[in-house]
Amino acid sequence: MTEKQYVVAILGATGAVGTRMIQQLEQSTIPVKEVHLLASYRSAGKTLYFKGEPVTVEEAKPESFDGVDLVLSSAGGSVSAKLLPEAVKRGAVCVDNTSYFRMNDDVPLVVPEVNEDALEGHNGIIANPNCSTIQMVVALEPVRQKFGLKRIIVSTYQAAGGAGQSAINELKREAQEYLDGKSMNAEILPVKGAKKHYPLAFNLLPQIDVFEDDGYTHEEWKMIHETKKIMLGDKNSPDIKVTATCVRVPVPVGHGESVWFEVGDGNTPTPDELRAAMADFPGLVVQDDPATQLYPQPQTAEGSRDTFVGRIRPDLETKGAYNSWVVSDNLLKGAAWNAVQIAECLVRRDLVRVPEGGAAKFN
What we know:
Number of strands: 14
Order of helices and strands: EHEEEEEHEHEHEHHEEHEHEEH
Number of helices: 9
Structural class: alpha/beta
Strand content: 15-25%
Distance between the termini: 37 Å
């Protein structure tokens, strides 16, 4: 029997995540018959490579998805809102890396290690969660499964790359300006469309995304509600309490997170028991040996598909509560690899098809 092969389109192929999607697709188990690289009209005509073969970047239009089986998208929310329903209408299943569809009740929000089964109910679009949410739920899911999970307090240390390649470039430029004794010229962070911009080099920015009326940023809001939707299937579930403070730090790639968590009533696992549960979980690597100064770091996590956890220790003031430190490459597990990993699951489960009536959900 001939193995089924798939026509795959990558939307936003020239961006920081898109180029990594190409690399992750090359290394994936997906039998690719043909790849289409799509971007804005400004990037059309560029040449990129897939498995050593040149591929010309095309301008993304609705007709670009004719004959496409799978779409991996990371081109911005407005582009996803406009083009992904068109792709679904043409029979393509889409994995979207933007925030546009994440809270849509008709769209599964998936981290394969945590809730792969949610793919069974898809209507043609699957949402890739926020990068900081992904690594946290991978680290905490084995805890939830074995000991229960009541509360999470997370403070993030998020890399410039979470705001795209342009933010990485700006960080490097600012750093050189600072070292040269020049004034740093900030144009992008904390939010490109904001009235004020601040340098990230040699600085910390306690704002990621826009502020909501309650004083939380939208990034913090996403971490709270995405965690509930992924772990509990309900973005507003009261069964796990979550709060977050998200901070941009002068690191090119690799998010760090200080994660405090409280397990279920009556459970008081030792740190060794927590480490054992985490070490047995797919995609999670325990790096935790204070005696040898072993703990996760962005520099050592960059380029890896795994999530790394360490500094696991009890809260000495609160029984059943613990501190931990979680790091992952936000452009791989936090974006490109998680999206391709979802696509691998769709292929393995024979779910690369739009169910009857699925396209109508997004009209």
